[in-house]
Amino acid sequence: MFSTIVVGTDGSATAALAVAQAAQLARNSGATLHLVAAFQTPAAIADPSSALLAQFTTNEEQMGAAQEMLEEVAAGLGGLDIELHARSGPPAAVIVRHAEEVGADLIVVGSKGMQGARRLIGSVPNSVAHSASCHVLIAKTN
């Protein structure tokens, strides 16, 4: 059914639900699972309260923290073909760009930000759904 699945994560509990959904789909399909984490320098973060990596001040520190977080997430997903990718930039753009680069046939994102005012001003799932060139699954995470 799917051969390459991309899922974005920031290490949060809601992202873990999206990762679990993506992992199950990867198991069922025999797909490669790409775990993607996006980070930005603090000056570029519009909402620091939602960014787990905002406490780090340099791209190198953020890259290291993102890579470590991805390794922890991947450790709980044994038995899958998993690739880890930490990249700088806005989360939705990073996820979509990575999916295009690897020829993904599915992107999985959590539903956080799909309700209320955040939905109107832009959320990661909304942006991914409108800009991806492949299937997008918005996993119910809230």
Return the structural class: alpha/beta
Radius of gyration: 14 Å
Helix content: 40-55%
Widest sheet: strand order?
3-2-1-4-5
CATH topology: the name is Rossmann fold
- Helix tally equals 5
In terms of DSSP E residues, the strand content is 15-25%
Instruction: Sketch the topology as an H/E string, one letter per element.
Output: EHEHEHEHHE
Overall geometric form = globular
Considering the protein shown, what is the CATH homologous superfamily? HUPs
The CATH class assignment is: Alpha Beta
Q: What's the number of domains?
A: 1
Question: Could you explain how this protein is built, in words?
Answer:
The protein is α/β, with parallel strands linked by helices and 142 residues long. The chain has one domain: Rossmann fold (3-Layer(aba) Sandwich), CATH 3.40.50.620. The chain is 42% helix and 22% strand. It contains 5 helices and 5 strands; from the N terminus they run E-H-E-H-E-H-E-H-H-E. Strands 3-2-1-4-5 form a 5-stranded parallel beta sheet, sandwiched between helices.
